[in-house]
């Protein structure tokens, strides 16, 4: 099972991303269904101790914050994309919450 830490995004953002998906004419890509669009904070890999991860996540408390989409890019490059990603403006709260998880705060 592939495990990762992610944030759900509002439906309005999912709708915008879905529109962007439909406007891209890249036949070699398989797009994520809009209901599965999320913000990946950390990919954990295939095998981890799920109980430790859940315990750490339960320790993190945060209030709502605003994220702004800022860019779009391709990996490994735009001429043979395997992944299309959307970048975010810098956000101190997101960095803080992400750091709490990674460091185990």
Can you walk through the features of this model?
The chain is of the alpha+beta class and 105 residues long. The chain has one domain (3-103): Alpha-Beta Complex (Cyclic Phosphodiesterase, Chain: A). Helices cover 32% and strands 26% of the residues. The chain has three helices and four strands, in the order E-H-E-H-E-E-H. The chain has helices at 11-23, 50-58, 92-103; strands at residues 3-8, 38-45, 69-75, 83-88. The strands form two sheets. A two-stranded antiparallel ribbon has the order 1-2. A two-stranded antiparallel sheet has the order 3-4. The longest helix has 13 residues, at 11-23. It is globular and about 40 Å long.
Percent range for β-strand residues = 25-35%
What's the CATH class label?
Alpha Beta
Task: Please provide the ordered H/E string of secondary-structure elements.
Answer: EHEHEEH
Largest sheet: 2 strands, antiparallel
Q: What is the alpha-carbon Rg in Å?
A: 15 Å
Helix content: 25-40%
Terminal-residue CA separation = 26 Å
Low-confidence stretches: none
Q: Going by CATH, what is the homologous superfamily?
A: Cyclic phosphodiesterase
Question: What is the count of DSSP helices, taking H or I runs of 4+ residues?
Answer: 3
